[in-house]
Design goal:
Layout: H1 21-50, H2 58-62, E1 67-76, E2 82-91, H3 97-102, H4 104-116, H5 120-124, H6 126-144, E3 153-164
Antiparallel strand pairs: 1-2, 2-3
Length: 171
Amino acid sequence: MSTAIDDSYIPDIDYDDFEGSDGSRRVIFIALVAVLILVIGALAYWRLVIYSPGNQTLKQVENTTATYSMGTQTMNLSDGSLVQVEVVMKLTTLANMSEFSQKSAQLNNAEIYVFSSTTFQQLLTTQGKNQVQAELVTQFQKILGPVDKLPQLSAVYFKNLVESAQGAPVS
C-alpha cells in the first residue's frame, strides 16, 4: 500500500493578494494607539480636575451633618421687642472647628447686629425669617472666611425661636 498525498484538495493560494495586510495592520495599530491615548487622557483629566480635593463642588462640600450651635441668646430687636433664639450653623466638610471657637465672640456680635436690625413684624413672616437667615450666613461667612475658596458653612437654622412683642415677657 502506498500512501501518496493527494494535492488536489489544497487550494492554490496567491500570496500576492496579501500585500495590503501590512497597511491594514498599520491602521489597526494607529487606531489602538489613539484609543490608548484617549483613555490615558481621560484618566488624567479625571484625576487632576474632577477627583482633585481642591476642586470640590459645593454639593460635595455641603454633604455633611456637622453643626455648630451659637447657644441660646436673648436680644433686643430694632423696635424694642425681644427675641430669644439658638442659632445653629450647618457646617461643610471643610469647616475648621478650632476657628469657630476662636471667632465665637465675632460670630455672637454678628448675630446680635443682624437681630438688632430686625423688627418683630419681620420675624413674624417666613420671608422675614429667611432674610435674617440669609444675612446671618453672609455675615458668618465673612467672619470665618473660605477654605480652599469654598465656604465653611452652608446654612443657618433657628432652634427654639421665641419672639416677644414690645413689653411682653419672653418665656
